[in-house]
Design brief:
The protein is mostly beta strands. The protein has one domain (5-109): OB fold (Dihydrolipoamide Acetyltransferase, E2P). It contains one helix and six strands, in the order E-E-E-E-H-E-E.
Length: 132
């Protein structure tokens, strides 16, 4: 069986870092990933994918990633359920990251990494031009 996902996108907001009762770090953020085609109106669309990362990598994400920064995530798809306060079953779909690479250049505050060119990235808009 294989459950592997690789995504490249921009964060829609700063990562949220928490700690479990046992002291293990966990961070969550949403990655906006462009679709490879335009809609009927000729506009680009994106998918907004929830990412969860654990341990030291979670702390690094919270320290070095921020809204609008470009990141690559390698992980697995996880679907979990819980019962809400109203008794209704809720479904959560997220990617549990094994690896998060920071792709924004160092000078833009994106942490370490060699920039989007390392992954074949082309001309990317400045972080200030992102609408979210």
């Amino acid at each position: 069986m294989l459950n592997r996902i690789v995504l490249i996108g921009r964060l829609t907001k700063d990562p949220e870092l928490r700690y479990t009762p046992n002291g293990k770090a966990v961070a969550g953020f949403t990655l906006a990933v462009d679709r490879p085609f335009k809609n009927q109106q000729g506009e680009k669309e994106a998918d907004f994918i929830n990412i969860v990362v654990w341990g030291t990598q979670a702390e690094n994400c919270a320290n070095y990633l921020s809204k609008g920064k470009l990141a690559a995530v390698d992980g697995r798809l996880q679907i979990r359920t819980f019962d809400g306060q109203d008794g209704q079953r809720r479904w959560i779909t997220e990617v549990v990251a094994d690896t998060v690479r920071f792709l924004s250049p160092k000078d833009s505050g994106g942490g370490f990494g060699s920039g989007p060119a390392a992954f074949g990235g082309g001309d990317l808009p400045p972080d200030d031009d992102i609408p979210f």
